[in-house]
Predict the structure.
Amino acid sequence: MAFVNTTSDAVARVPSLLARFTAAGLPLVGDDLASQFGSSVVHRALLRLVRERGLTLLSSYQVNLGGTEDFRNLVENPNTKGQSKRNALGSDQVQVAPLGYLPHLGSQKIAHLNVEAQGWGGTPVSLDVRLSVHDPSGAAGVNIDLVRLAAVALRSGRGGELAEAAELLKSPPGTAI
């Protein structure tokens, strides 16, 4: 059977596991899904816009708050999630603050994003964004897409990494563990 890992724990990024799935002709999809419209997707788009418009990125940060058990678990084990977010953002100049667990938020996720850049002639550019989303709903459709991709690959006998799933993940194979 195929395996789909939507958590930030390294599974598909472990070369020995990926090799075993490939040899067995079984799809291994992961790691860490990127929600339909979550903080990593929005932050990545902003960083890409800075590059495309010729600005110089000086610094950027992201802070995420939520009230689900996922957030509680992530507060207790922040290393894998922090690395996964850095993988998704693709820049060493981005800091990801430890996630905050606030039980009263329930399924709401609140993200604060900041981008500091320099434009033409050294002109400063500062951007602050606050994003509020229902976290489980943002992940639901992506989960379904990942399972469908794995099912199609399994039926066609394709094992190992699925390149077509990479855009739906924060840390696909080949990114840091």
The mean pLDDT is 93.
